[in-house]
Design a protein that fits this description.
Layout (H helix, E strand, L loop, with lengths): L14 H40 L4 E6 L4 E4 L1 H7 L3 H4 L4 H5 L15 H7 L7 E6 L5 E12 L6 E9 L3 H8 L14 H11 L4 H8 L3 H14 L5 H10 L4
Helix pairs in contact: 7-9, 7-10, 8-9
Length: 247
């Protein structure tokens, strides 16, 4: 019986051989204990990542150092149309097929973000063209946070996606694009987008989904459009817009 490990040794083994075997077995048990500790710590970190992603209001997902998706929240499902059960464990570059604003491939198996993190370089926000479940292209702002574990080689990445809105567009939502006397010439770009979707027969709820804004915001845009076109209904606003060449 080995006093160090509690494991029986061969009766035929010499004392030096028994001691050597005992020490090797002890090292093996020690290695197993250390491995178990790493597993527990990794599992704990994984659960924290899942909780963080789930509690994030914006579209968010997490990946490991191989680019495999570990967590995917409801907002990401709404933005991209992919259900969590269909993306977990899959490479993010296959799901998003991300490209830069010029249409060049950005997301790939050899992820530049992972390489940057391993070199200790900061990852700044960037714009990305991603593919949703309907193969439509969506432009998003991406923020990435690297969460290193106790084992330096194990990295977890939290990605937050926001629908892209340029500074110019954001300003135009709040301010008229023109100060001409005709109120209809003061429709902002966002108001024109809402108007065109209305003219196509799109519902208020669907407009909100397409433009990634709330239903209440859509209703406010419709009110502003009607006021500027001096219309008393949606159909009248569409008719006036057509006569003015806005549609």
């Amino acid at each position: 019986m080995c006093l160090k490990t509690g494991v029986a040794t061969s009766f035929g083994a010499s004392r030096p051989d028994s001691i050597a075997a005992c020490e090797k077995m002890g090292d093996a048990f020690g290695a197993l204990a250390r491995f178990s500790g790493i597993v527990l710590k990794t599992s704990s970190l994984h659960m924290k990542v899942i909780d963080t992603v789930a509690s994030t209001a914006e579209a968010a997902y997490a990946t490991n150092e191989k680019g495999k998706i570990l967590a995917w929240n409801k907002a990401a499902e709404q933005l991209l149309g992919h259900e969590e059960v269909r993306v977990l464990g899959k490479p993010c570059y296959e799901i998003l097929a991300g490209k830069d604003p010029f249409g060049n491939r950005y997301c790939d198996k050899n992820c530049s973000l992972i390489n940057m993190a391993r070199r200790g370089e900061p990852i700044h926000n960037f714009e990305l063209l991603v593919r949703n479940s309907q193969s439509e292209i969506i432009r998003v702002d991406v923020s990435v946070v690297c969460l290193p574990s106790r084992a330096h080689s194990e990295l977890t990445f939290l990605h937050v996606l926001k629908p892209f809105e340029s500074k110019k567009e954001a300003k135009e939502v709040r301010e008229p694009v023109s100060q001409a006397r005709d109120p209809s010439a003061q429709l902002s770009r966002r108001e024109l987008e809402v108007l065109r979707l209305l003219a196509d027969g799109t519902s208020t709820k669907k407009i909100a989904e397409v433009l990634f804004i709330s239903v209440e915001t859509v209703r406010n845009h419709i009110k502003h459009v009607a006021r500027k076109l001096q219309a008393h209904s949606r159909s009248e606003a569409i008719a006036r817009a057509r006569r003015k060449g806005l549609l």
